[in-house]
Amino acid sequence: MQKFTTLTGVAAPLPMINVDTDMIIPKQFLKTIARTGLGKSLFYELRYDESGADRPEFVLNKPAYRNSEILVAGDNFGCGSSREHAPWALLDFGIRCVISTGFADIFYNNCFKNGILPIKVKPEELEKLLDDARRGANARITIDLEKQEIRGPDGGVIAFEIDAFRKHCLLNGLDDIGLTMQKESSIRAYEERTATARPWA
Length: 201
Hints:
Aconitase, domain 4; 7 strands
Protein backbone atom coordinates (compact mmCIF):
# COMPACT_ATOMS: atom_id res chain seq x y z
CA MET A 1 0.00 0.00 0.00
CA GLN A 2 1.32 3.47 -0.88
CA LYS A 3 2.37 5.56 2.09
CA PHE A 4 0.33 8.66 2.93
CA THR A 5 2.36 11.48 4.46
CA THR A 6 1.45 14.82 2.88
CA LEU A 7 -0.71 15.54 -0.13
CA THR A 8 -1.06 18.87 -1.92
CA GLY A 9 -3.45 19.38 -4.79
CA VAL A 10 -6.71 20.65 -6.18
CA ALA A 11 -9.76 19.44 -4.29
CA ALA A 12 -12.95 18.59 -6.14
CA PRO A 13 -16.17 19.83 -4.50
CA LEU A 14 -19.03 17.31 -4.36
CA PRO A 15 -21.55 18.83 -1.92
CA MET A 16 -24.06 15.99 -2.22
CA ILE A 17 -25.30 14.23 0.90
CA ASN A 18 -25.85 10.47 1.19
CA VAL A 19 -23.62 9.51 -1.74
CA ASP A 20 -23.89 5.74 -1.55
CA THR A 21 -21.49 3.08 -2.78
CA ASP A 22 -23.71 2.27 -5.77
CA MET A 23 -23.35 5.88 -6.87
CA ILE A 24 -19.58 5.67 -6.34
CA ILE A 25 -19.25 2.45 -8.36
CA PRO A 26 -22.48 0.93 -9.79
CA LYS A 27 -23.24 -2.77 -9.33
CA GLN A 28 -22.54 -3.73 -12.95
CA PHE A 29 -18.83 -3.06 -12.37
CA LEU A 30 -18.48 -5.38 -9.37
CA LYS A 31 -17.63 -8.51 -11.37
CA THR A 32 -13.90 -7.96 -11.06
CA ILE A 33 -11.77 -8.74 -8.02
CA ALA A 34 -8.90 -6.63 -9.37
CA ARG A 35 -8.28 -3.31 -7.64
CA THR A 36 -7.28 -1.57 -10.87
CA GLY A 37 -9.32 -0.42 -13.83
CA LEU A 38 -12.32 0.82 -11.86
CA GLY A 39 -11.38 4.50 -11.98
CA LYS A 40 -12.94 4.99 -15.40
CA SER A 41 -16.29 3.86 -13.95
CA LEU A 42 -16.16 5.99 -10.80
CA PHE A 43 -19.44 7.91 -10.39
CA TYR A 44 -20.46 6.36 -13.72
CA GLU A 45 -24.06 7.57 -13.84
CA LEU A 46 -23.05 11.08 -12.77
CA ARG A 47 -20.06 11.31 -15.14
CA TYR A 48 -21.58 9.87 -18.33
CA ASP A 49 -24.87 10.17 -20.20
CA GLU A 50 -26.82 7.30 -21.78
CA SER A 51 -24.51 7.24 -24.81
CA GLY A 52 -21.38 7.08 -22.65
CA ALA A 53 -20.35 10.67 -23.33
CA ASP A 54 -19.05 12.90 -20.55
CA ARG A 55 -21.56 15.05 -18.72
CA PRO A 56 -19.71 18.39 -18.79
CA GLU A 57 -21.51 19.68 -15.69
CA PHE A 58 -20.17 16.92 -13.42
CA VAL A 59 -17.27 18.15 -11.32
CA LEU A 60 -14.73 15.45 -12.23
CA ASN A 61 -15.33 16.10 -15.93
CA LYS A 62 -14.37 19.75 -15.61
CA PRO A 63 -10.80 20.50 -16.70
CA ALA A 64 -9.79 21.95 -13.33
CA TYR A 65 -10.76 18.76 -11.48
CA ARG A 66 -9.89 15.88 -13.83
CA ASN A 67 -6.72 15.13 -11.87
CA SER A 68 -8.04 15.82 -8.37
CA GLU A 69 -6.56 13.75 -5.55
CA ILE A 70 -8.80 15.24 -2.85
CA LEU A 71 -12.60 15.07 -2.73
CA VAL A 72 -14.64 17.39 -0.50
CA ALA A 73 -18.02 15.71 -0.11
CA GLY A 74 -21.36 16.10 1.65
CA ASP A 75 -22.45 14.27 4.79
CA ASN A 76 -22.83 10.47 5.09
CA PHE A 77 -20.47 9.70 2.23
CA GLY A 78 -20.12 6.03 1.29
CA CYS A 79 -23.42 4.83 2.73
CA GLY A 80 -25.30 1.86 1.27
CA SER A 81 -23.81 -1.56 0.61
CA SER A 82 -20.42 -2.58 1.94
CA ARG A 83 -18.62 -3.06 -1.39
CA GLU A 84 -14.85 -2.57 -1.16
CA HIS A 85 -14.90 -1.68 -4.86
CA ALA A 86 -15.91 1.86 -3.83
CA PRO A 87 -12.51 2.83 -2.36
CA TRP A 88 -10.82 0.82 -5.13
CA ALA A 89 -12.56 2.99 -7.73
CA LEU A 90 -11.70 6.23 -5.92
CA LEU A 91 -8.05 5.24 -5.59
CA ASP A 92 -7.79 4.04 -9.19
CA PHE A 93 -9.13 7.41 -10.34
CA GLY A 94 -6.48 9.12 -8.21
CA ILE A 95 -8.42 10.19 -5.10
CA ARG A 96 -6.20 9.75 -2.02
CA CYS A 97 -8.25 11.75 0.49
CA VAL A 98 -11.98 12.29 1.05
CA ILE A 99 -13.17 15.02 3.41
CA SER A 100 -16.71 15.04 4.80
CA THR A 101 -18.69 15.67 7.97
CA GLY A 102 -19.50 11.98 8.19
CA PHE A 103 -18.92 8.58 6.57
CA ALA A 104 -20.66 5.24 6.63
CA ASP A 105 -18.69 3.00 9.01
CA ILE A 106 -17.81 0.18 6.58
CA PHE A 107 -16.73 2.57 3.83
CA TYR A 108 -14.68 4.55 6.36
CA ASN A 109 -12.85 1.41 7.49
CA ASN A 110 -12.32 0.21 3.91
CA CYS A 111 -10.66 3.52 3.01
CA PHE A 112 -7.90 3.01 5.56
CA LYS A 113 -7.31 -0.55 4.35
CA ASN A 114 -6.76 0.73 0.82
CA GLY A 115 -4.55 3.76 1.44
CA ILE A 116 -7.23 6.46 1.31
CA LEU A 117 -7.42 9.00 4.14
CA PRO A 118 -11.03 9.82 5.12
CA ILE A 119 -11.16 13.00 7.21
CA LYS A 120 -14.12 14.06 9.33
CA VAL A 121 -14.60 17.81 9.84
CA LYS A 122 -17.24 20.07 11.35
CA PRO A 123 -20.01 21.46 9.10
CA GLU A 124 -18.60 25.01 9.15
CA GLU A 125 -15.15 23.64 8.27
CA LEU A 126 -16.60 21.68 5.37
CA GLU A 127 -18.26 24.82 4.00
CA LYS A 128 -14.91 26.64 4.02
CA LEU A 129 -13.23 23.73 2.27
CA LEU A 130 -16.01 23.58 -0.32
CA ASP A 131 -15.52 27.30 -0.98
CA ASP A 132 -11.79 26.71 -1.44
CA ALA A 133 -12.42 23.74 -3.72
CA ARG A 134 -14.81 25.71 -5.94
CA ARG A 135 -11.88 27.98 -6.84
CA GLY A 136 -10.34 25.12 -8.77
CA ALA A 137 -6.69 25.35 -9.78
CA ASN A 138 -6.46 28.73 -8.05
CA ALA A 139 -6.77 27.07 -4.64
CA ARG A 140 -4.61 24.13 -3.63
CA ILE A 141 -5.17 22.29 -0.35
CA THR A 142 -2.49 20.47 1.65
CA ILE A 143 -3.23 17.44 3.81
CA ASP A 144 -0.53 16.79 6.42
CA LEU A 145 -1.20 13.47 8.11
CA GLU A 146 1.73 13.65 10.54
CA LYS A 147 0.53 17.01 11.90
CA GLN A 148 -3.15 16.11 11.35
CA GLU A 149 -3.79 19.36 9.53
CA ILE A 150 -5.62 20.57 6.45
CA ARG A 151 -3.97 23.76 5.19
CA GLY A 152 -6.02 25.96 2.90
CA PRO A 153 -4.81 28.25 0.10
CA ASP A 154 -5.30 31.35 2.27
CA GLY A 155 -3.18 30.04 5.15
CA GLY A 156 -6.04 28.72 7.24
CA VAL A 157 -5.50 25.50 9.16
CA ILE A 158 -8.08 22.89 10.15
CA ALA A 159 -6.99 20.22 12.64
CA PHE A 160 -8.51 16.76 12.38
CA GLU A 161 -8.63 13.67 14.57
CA ILE A 162 -7.55 10.20 13.54
CA ASP A 163 -7.05 6.92 15.36
CA ALA A 164 -3.35 6.51 16.21
CA PHE A 165 -3.11 2.96 14.83
CA ARG A 166 -4.74 3.91 11.53
CA LYS A 167 -2.46 6.91 11.26
CA HIS A 168 0.57 4.66 11.81
CA CYS A 169 -0.60 2.27 9.09
CA LEU A 170 -1.16 5.04 6.52
CA LEU A 171 2.13 6.77 7.27
CA ASN A 172 3.98 3.48 6.79
CA GLY A 173 1.90 2.07 3.94
CA LEU A 174 0.71 -0.93 5.93
CA ASP A 175 -2.43 -2.77 4.88
CA ASP A 176 -3.57 -6.03 6.53
CA ILE A 177 -1.00 -8.04 4.57
CA GLY A 178 1.76 -5.58 5.39
CA LEU A 179 0.93 -5.77 9.08
CA THR A 180 1.06 -9.56 8.94
CA MET A 181 4.41 -9.53 7.13
CA GLN A 182 5.89 -7.47 9.95
CA LYS A 183 5.52 -10.64 12.04
CA GLU A 184 7.15 -12.83 9.39
CA SER A 185 10.08 -13.92 11.60
CA SER A 186 7.74 -14.88 14.45
CA ILE A 187 5.47 -16.77 12.07
CA ARG A 188 8.43 -18.64 10.57
CA ALA A 189 9.77 -19.51 14.05
CA TYR A 190 6.35 -20.84 15.09
CA GLU A 191 6.10 -22.98 11.95
CA GLU A 192 9.59 -24.41 12.57
CA ARG A 193 8.71 -25.25 16.18
CA THR A 194 5.47 -26.87 15.09
CA ALA A 195 7.22 -28.93 12.41
CA THR A 196 9.66 -30.25 15.01
CA ALA A 197 7.10 -30.92 17.71
CA ARG A 198 4.48 -32.40 15.37
CA PRO A 199 6.26 -33.74 12.28
CA TRP A 200 3.15 -35.72 11.34
CA ALA A 201 0.99 -32.58 11.10
